[in-house]
Write a structure and sequence with these properties.
The chain is α+β, with helices and mostly antiparallel strands. 36% of the residues lie in helices and 26% in strands. Strands 1, 2, 3, 4, 5 and 6 form a six-stranded antiparallel sheet that branches. A two-stranded antiparallel sheet has the order 7-8. A hairpin with a 6-residue loop joins strand 7 and strand 8. 26% of the residues are buried. Keywords: Plasmid.
Amino acid sequence: MRREYDLQTDVLATVVATTPVTLKHVALLTAFATRTDFRDARYVTTRDTWSARPARLVTADGIEIASDYRAWVEQQLAEHGGNAEAVCTANRTKGYLLTEVQPVLHYFSHDRGGDQDNFVQLEVWEEQEFIARELFARQATDWGRPTIDDLRNGHPDSGFEERLERRDLGTPRYRLGRAIDMRVFTALVESLFSDRHRRDGDRLLRVTDTSTGSESVRSVREFTPGYDQHISRERRFFDDWTESSAGQSGERICTRWIFQTSDWTDPKAVRWISFVPGWGHNQKVAAVKDTHRLDAYGLFGRLNQFDRRIGMPFAWYFYGLHGNLVKDGHLERILEAAEQGLIVLPENNYRVLRRWRDLPYGF
């Protein structure tokens, strides 16, 4: 189902799929600039945390048996009454090789300027197909029986497959993952949050005064000062960036962070949409640690050193909202030190930090 923020088109998918993989994605960036509306797209970062997945089934001579391994498995299961062991027995002597695809995910952003959320995030998969092993052991083993899940995942005889030297098939290829209008996405996040927050605020609670025993009924909103001023953590992330030295210095959030989006509907037909930011730096950055021996001034110096490594001001605050390079305890110590006059923070950064302490959030 196409979502409100989806900008994928068949034309865009074709442009991506037909562009060769080159060093630093030069060809793809050129294609974006000359063949799409995303003329100012730039590379942000890469994530390579995915395992290889089954792709095709071929013979030792390279003849294709099935272009879609999982579809072949389902057909085989249907022919053998859903018996995974029978499928293995029927195919053990055929010498079939399983090809797999190793994916990595590249993030690009097309900044449209203005508000910090006014950009398009482009997610592009780079995939390399290869042969690593025979699918079935030549002989059945006594080490357990293959399950249907084992078969579907391409490991019916896990630990006993004939291992081969990895052989790449062809060259890597690009495939369009998603093109997300982050301004529309964030507006939708905030709209759903506001509706849900308003409904939650209307809930009534029965309260008993322990000293008098009298009872009263009050709404959640009445119990929570400033309840109607709350906004989503996603909106706050952009707003904090805009107000702080990060945004005021001219840094654009879409060149520094990527956004792992989520959009799903629960069994009660309630839609949940959100994102988790991920840092976009491509160099190794050491965590701020061993700070318990440091006084506030020493900690502040360590955080400013962290900013220099990242290459922008107030980076430590945003890294403190997500990940393990900066801890939220560091944020608390810095705010306390600023309020005690031990260190000096720019006023805009102090406001952001104080607002975070008054109503903490993170990812």
